Amino acid sequence: MKILFYMPNAEAAVWLHDFARALPEADLREWQPGDTAPADFAVVWRPPREMLAGRSDLRAIFNLGAGVDAILALEREQPGTLPRNAQLIRLEDTGMAPQMAEYVTHAVLRYLRRFDEYQTLQSERRWQVLDPHPRETFTVGVLGLGVLGAHVAQTLAAFGLPVRGYSRSARQVEGIVTFAGEAQFDAFLDGVKVLVNLLPHTPDTADVLNARAFSKLARGAYLVNVARGGHLVEGDLLDAFASGQLAAATLDVFREEPLPQDHPFWQEPRITITPHTSALTLREESVAQVAAKIVALKRGGTVSGVVNVERGY
Ligand code: NAP
Ligand code: GLV
Which residues are in the D-isomer specific 2-hydroxyacid dehydrogenase NAD-binding domain (predicted)? Predict the structure, then answer.
């Protein structure tokens, strides 16, 4: 069994080492430009087009992340890049769900309990009690009820907050009021106080965080974007701050990463910026999940996490 590996950073060696331990019988190699020798599986993060194009031997491509937007963009830009017979398989949770829940919960509770305002008061040495936000109207709306979104929504519901979730197909998640499909989008947004984005980035979801969506939220709402920068119309966010429709945003992802030095978001005190770190790919969990799926496929079995390329996630 031959496995090709690609990761565009210096950590490739340690990943290869761990895969070799998990799959001792495998013939593993790091892909180098010009390598067209046979392979059964590819394990990749943000691979170059030439690694995959024209390969009819691959049975499956494992994406070392939950989001497959980058790899599917290669196919969209140049159809035929992804080998037609190879399944594209993404990471499922692998420790990302608890990280996401921590990150989003921190942001939501910080807004609920008005920590930013208390910090400002502290800087002015002012001892002042602010009116609490009424919990019953501090509705959190989670876009995306998949592996990560459903876990985040349920974590927030445990704090007694009203939580809504939105997905493409109808979902039932205990403790969450759910909405599905475009026809229910406005009802989902209506009066939401904190909008959390955990959608995959697809042609259908690009730019979904825009002026129209913001206008449906409660006045002075908050945004937490932990999915992809391409979901957010950046100018609409700044306009929504200027009008008072949005009060603050926590952003982990950006259209251009790293966020350029001269980007206006750096100067905006209402935006909290983190460098795409809300849920990191954990090596141990990821190697174990991918290795187990390779073994299952090798034995002729089926696995979960297979991406529907047409749908985009
Ligand atoms: P997932 O399990 O595939 O869930 C995707 C959810 O989005 C599903 O509920 C799906 O609806 C819904 N959805 C997709 N297209 C939709 C549409 N057009 N309208 C309404 N709902 C739609 O994905 P996941 O594992 O939770 O990951 C979600 C995303 O998080 C990833 O794609 C990635 O971009 C992002 N992410 C970010 C980080 C980070 O560090 N910032 C880390 C990991 C992941 P159905 O339930 O009907 O299918
Ligand atoms: C990270 O952003 C991922 O998609 O796993």
Answer: 107-278
